[in-house]
C-alpha cells in the first residue's frame, strides 16, 4: 500500500431502478487506473456512502477489487452512526479485498475528543489494514487537529495517512510539523491540490478525476515535479471545474460532468436530485466551455 498519487473518490453509479450498476463500476475503475490513478476510494461522501446499505458497500468494494484486477489498492471509506457498525464494516471490507481503509468520524454524533478518538481507535484495531484518517470538519462536525492526529499516530502504527479537507492548506504543514514524515498527507478538496503539493502533500483524494483522469493526474504530476508554470496553466483551466467539488451539490455536479464526457450518468439517490433550472443552464455552459478549450 503506497500512499501517494491521485486516488479517485469514486461516484456510485445507479441503474434506472436505483440499484448499483456493478458492470459500470468495474469499467469505470479500470478506466481510471488506465489513466494513471494509483488507488480507488469507494463508499465516500462523493460516492453517496450515507445512502448505501452495509451490504451494498461491501458489494461495491468487491466490484472495485475485481475491476482494478490487482493493479492498484482499493481503499473504501468507512463511516457509520455507531462504532460497532464501523468495526463490522472494516472487517467485512478487508474480507472483500480492500487493501486499506479511509476511516471517518461517526455520522450524526459530534462528541468530545475522547469519544471520537475511541471511535477511530476501534476502527484502527478492527483489522491490520493500513488506514487513512479523513478530516472534514465542515461536513462531519469534528475537527481532527494536528495534535489529535499525532496522538493517534503515536498509538497505532497502521494509521498511515491523512486526508485533509478542512479547506485550510496550512493544515498540511501543521500536521507535518508535529508528525514529520510519519504520515502521508493527501489533499481532500479538488481546488487545493497544487497548493497542497507545494506544502508537502504526497497524494490527492480527488473528485473531478471521475470524469477527467488524464488532466487530474497531469496537474498533480506537474505540481509534484515543480513545473510551476505548466502546472499553473493547467490548473487555471481546471479550477472552475474543480470548484464544483466544494459545493453542497458536488455529487450532482461531478456526475453531470461525467455524463458530459460520456463516462457515467446523472442518476443519484434521493434525497438528492439532478441539478435543475437556471443554475443547471449556467453550470452546463461553464462545463462545456471548459471541455471545449485546449488543456
Number of helices: 12
Which range does the strand content fall in? Answer: 5-15%
Q: What oligomeric state do these chains adopt?
A: single chain
Please give the share of residues in helix: 40-55%
CATH topology-level fold name: TIM Barrel
Number of distinct beta strands: 7
Main sheet properties: 7 strands, parallel
Spatial strand sequence of the major β-sheet? 1-7-6-5-4-3-2
**How much is the average pLDDT?**
96
Output the helix-strand order.
EHHEHEHEHHEHEHEHHHH
**Which CATH-level-2 architecture?**
Alpha-Beta Barrel
**Integer count of domains:** 1
CATH superfamily: Aldolase class I
Structural class: alpha/beta
N→C terminal distance: 32 Å
**The top level CATH class name:** Alpha Beta
Amino acid at each position: 500500500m503506497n500512499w501517494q498519487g491521485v486516488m479517485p473518490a469514486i461516484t456510485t453509479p445507479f441503474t434506472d431502478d436505483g440499484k448499483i450498476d456493478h458492470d459500470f463500476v468495474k469499467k469505470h475503475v479500470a478506466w481510471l487506473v488506465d489513466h494513471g490513478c494509483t488507488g480507488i476510494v469507494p463508499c465516500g461522501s462523493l460516492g453517496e456512502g450515507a445512502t448505501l446499505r452495509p451490504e451494498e458497500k461491501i458489494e461495491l468494494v468487491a466490484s472495485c477489487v475485481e475491476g482494478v484486477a490487482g493493479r492498484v489498492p482499493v481503499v473504501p471509506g468507512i463511516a457509520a452512526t455507531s462504532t460497532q457498525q464501523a468495526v463490522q464494516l472494516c472487517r467485512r471490507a478487508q474480507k472483500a479485498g480492500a487493501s486499506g481503509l479511509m476511516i471517518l468520524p461517526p455520522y450524526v454524533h459530534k462528541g468530545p475528543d475522547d469519544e471520537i478518538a475511541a471511535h477511530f481507535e476501534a476502527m484502527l484495531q478492527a483489522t491490520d489494514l493500513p488506514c487513512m484518517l479523513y478530516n472534514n470538519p465542515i461536513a462531519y462536525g469534528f475537527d481532527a487537529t494536528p495534535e489529535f492526529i499525532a496522538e493517534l499516530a503515536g498509538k497505532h502504527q497502521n494509521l498511515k495517512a491523512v486526508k485533509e479537507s478542512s479547506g485550510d492548506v496550512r493544515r498540511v504543514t501543521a500536521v507535518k510539523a508535529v508528525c514529520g514524515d510519519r504520515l502521508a498527507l493527501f489533499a481532500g478538496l479538488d481546488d487545493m491540490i497544487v497548493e497542497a503539493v507545494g506544502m508537502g502533500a504526497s497524494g490527492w483524494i480527488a473528485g473531478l478525476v471521475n470524469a477527467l483522469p488524464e488532466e487530474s493526474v497531469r496537474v498533480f504530476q506537474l505540481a509534484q515535479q515543480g513545473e510551476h508554470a505548466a502546472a499553473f496553466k493547467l490548473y487555471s483551466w481546471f479550477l472552475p471545474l474543480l470548484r464544483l467539488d466544494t459545493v453542497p451539490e458536488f455529487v450532482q455536479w461531478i456526475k453531470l460532468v461525467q455524463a458530459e464526457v460520456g463516462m457515467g450518468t446523472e442518476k443519484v439517490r434521493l434525497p438528492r436530485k439532478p441539478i435543475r433550472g437556471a443554475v443547471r443552464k449556467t453550470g452546463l455552459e461553464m462545463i462545456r466551455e471548459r471541455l471545449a478549450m485546449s488543456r
